[in-house]
Every structure is written in C-alpha cells, then in structure tokens.
Design brief:
Elements lengths: L7 H23 L4 E5 L2 E5 L2
C-alpha cells in the first residue's frame, strides 16, 4: 500500500477542521441543543 504525504496546507486545514468540530460539540452542549448527524445513511438527532 502506498503511503500518502500531506502538504503543509493540507495539514493546517485538517487541524482547523478538528478545532471547529471540538468547538461545535462544546457549543451544542452549552446550548443544550441537538446535534444532527448522518448515521447508516439516515439523518439522526443526538442530544449531547
């Protein structure tokens, strides 16, 4: 299997996406709001 190397920009983008995800979960918990996700090809609402 061939190993893929990421460019510095790709690494920064992925790190930024991780931060956004963490902040989204934190926000949803603080606001006591449902999180809408796609699970098994169905839209599901999850209470954090």
């Amino acid at each position: 299997m061939k190993e893929y190397k990421r460019t510095p920009n790709q690494t920064k983008i992925l790190e930024g996406m991780d931060k956004v995800y963490d902040k989204l979960i934190e926000f949803k918990k603080r606001m006591n709001s449902e999180l809408v996700i796609l699970k098994d090809n169905k839209i599901t609402r999850v209470k954090p």
